[in-house]
Amino acid sequence: MIGWLRGRLAAKQPPALVVDVNGVGYECEAPMSTFYTLPETGAEVVLRTHLVVREDAHILYAFGSEDERRLFRSLLKVSGVGPKIALGILSGISVNDFMLCIEAQDPDPLVRVPGVGRKTAERVLIDMRDRVKELAAGAPSAPARLGSAQQEAFSALVALGYKPAEVVRLLKGAGDEQSTVEELIRRALKAAAG
Questions:
Q1: Model's pTM, two decimal places?
Q2: Mind listing the pLDDT tens digit for each residue in 132-171?
Q3: For residues 2 and 30, what is the distance between their CA atoms, to the nearest angstrom?
Q4: Residue 165 carries which DSSP code?
């Protein structure tokens, strides 16, 4: 299997790109999240890859980060989700937003992705609920990235009935590292009310 490519970016036209590695051009498909981070054509690039072998083709998928590749591989394990849908999900929602979507069990952000219907989104939510922990091992979920006071405030607000994705949004503007738990909760509740 090809784990990564390092070479010169020879061509890019979403969703396809070509990486010239010592005179060999590797054709890859990549999500839009990767395209947004690519340098100009002709510059050196390092991409993580995943090779899908089908009866009629070998397709190399390229990712700008290990988190994207890890999520892509997890999505492929969901019944009814193939590489095309997984690539679409990664193009339509960031890894962090996907993690929040799973934690909140909210299908709406997934349904907005072209090619993903409500049934597929609900299946992804159910199947990925248990896999979020293994994904979080390499890419911590939002609450783990918060400071200790913010983590306590997060837990308190979730206990009050707020969805995790909403709590993360509320806490972003609630204070800094020096704020107390009480200040964070008060500011977050004020933001939610206003």
A1: 0.68
A2: 766 655 543 444 445 567 777 777 777 777 777 777 777 7
A3: 15
A4: H
Among the listed ranges 72-76, 84-88, 186-190, which one has the minimum average pLDDT value? 186-190
| Closest by Cα among 75, 112, 115 to 95 | 75
- Convert 19-49 to b/e letters by CB count within 10 Å (16 or more is b): bbeeeeebebbbbebbbeebeeeeeebebbb
d(CA 140, CA 134): 10
Fold classification of 143-193 is Helicase, Ruva Protein; domain 3 (1.10.8)
The CATH topology of domain 4-63 is OB fold (Dihydrolipoamide Acetyltransferase, E2P) (2.40.50)
Rounded to the nearest 10 degrees, the angle between the axes of helix 148-159 and helix 181-193 is 50
